[in-house]
Fold this sequence. Notes:
The chain is an alpha/beta fold. The chain has a domain of 271 residues: Alpha-Beta Complex (Amidase signature (AS) enzymes). Helix content is 39%, strand content 13%. It contains 16 helices and 11 strands. The protein has an 11-stranded mixed β-sheet with strand order 1-3-2-4-6-5-10-11-9-7-8, sandwiched between helices. The radius of gyration is 21 Å and the shape is globular. The structure holds glutamine.
Amino acid sequence: MTDLKRLTMVEASNLLSRGEITSVQLCKECLDRISSVDGKMKAFLSLNEEEVLSQAKESDARRASGKALGPFDGVPVTIKDNIAVKGQKCSCASRILENFVSPYDATVIAKLRNAGMVLMGRANMDEFAMGSSCENSAFQKTANPWDITRVPGGSSGGSAASVAAGETVIALGSDTGGSIRQPASFCGIVGLKPTYGRVSRYGLVAFASSLDQIGPMSKDVRDSAAMLDLICGEDERDSTSLPAPVPEGGFLAALERSGEDLKGMKIGVPKEYFQVEGVADGVKKVTEEAMEKLKALGAEFVEITLPHTKYAMACYYIIAPAEASANLARFDGIRYGYRNESSGDLVRTYFDSRGEGFGPEVTRRIMLGTYVLSSGYYDAYYVRAQKVRTLIRRDFVEAFGKCDLIFTPVTPAPAFHFGEKSDPMQMYLSDVFTTALNLAGNCGISVPAGIDRESNMPSGIQLIAPDLAEEKLFHAAYAFEKARGAFPVPAL
Ligand code: GLN
């Protein structure tokens, strides 16, 4: 039996290449694990066992005949439910897309197939990726494997929980304002938000197109680099994807070459982030201990300032809903998904289908977005938020003149209990440390740092790098991870 809670994609690849396990065996172990814990945890929205096993069989056959598609051929990967896989349902955890089947593969999926990976099920999320707890899913609430009375975070909560609980080897999530990094921190795993444009968004159901990025959710930093190698790259189907260089041999190879220490690395600590009210003592403690570890590795901490960061939340909650209201206009009951068949005329069909198809949070965002884009308010809200966005980005550019990386907590508090944040504003505040860099466009990683002693829940740190400097993120995160030692796993 494999220790699935710890088995990484790189280790699975080694086991497969040495013939110590087959893809069918590995996938069966994951399926067994799912059937024993997912009744309680509910990370999966859909999973077709036959499809999983037939992909695994094909992979084993390729490997047996010396034709493996690469080192990760046969390794299972779980996909967030807003990424299109041809022939599979893609509901975005929404009633309006409940029975929608994707007619094509997202670019990231085509890349995973070309690498021979086994697509293993679709992970629960907040509806259309709007939320921080998975409680906004129209279908089920995913529980945190560390404590099933608590949320796994969101919106990529199903992806995070499935990786942490060892139901799968690795997963893909998407991050518009923190949806990879926050659930990663809540579940004790690694989550990367790549630089905007590093990974193609073709086939990712759009929430806020200028902020969305797909990224890996993994058990360690090496897997994060390995997965970024597989999914990154310019794509003619996404005009915002970038022709960005990758390190020689790829991110994983660069990470293996990178030094064990952080001598000469300057890490900026934004003074504003430590003035944020409501940061739990346990989180502060984990953060301070992590800083000590980074210092012991040779990093030098410098104080920096991100003066406009205090407006990031307000700015995000104008720009993201504005873009969402435009993107979600396509769900009209005519072209995709749910339709109220008894509405009578066309306009009523739109109203009824949308009214019944979208949940309360999505409806709230559409209303907010429509409001800030309406004539009379456009300049006061939307245009002003765009200007603030430019200032936020400028803050980062200036700060990176003084340091190589920036260090912050990921979230003000560890995973909360179900129902605890019933006021939407309270929920939005869990993103105070994560939204700024979606607005600025650069990259960030959430790495498990310790167990918060107040709640007994995992808590992560966030490292932020300039545009396209994922290599630096991986170097520091990997060195930190080694100094930290093996991270505990959930009991579930
Ligand atoms: N929690 C944030 C929101 O609700 C971020 C979501 C995300 O990154 N997809 O918008």
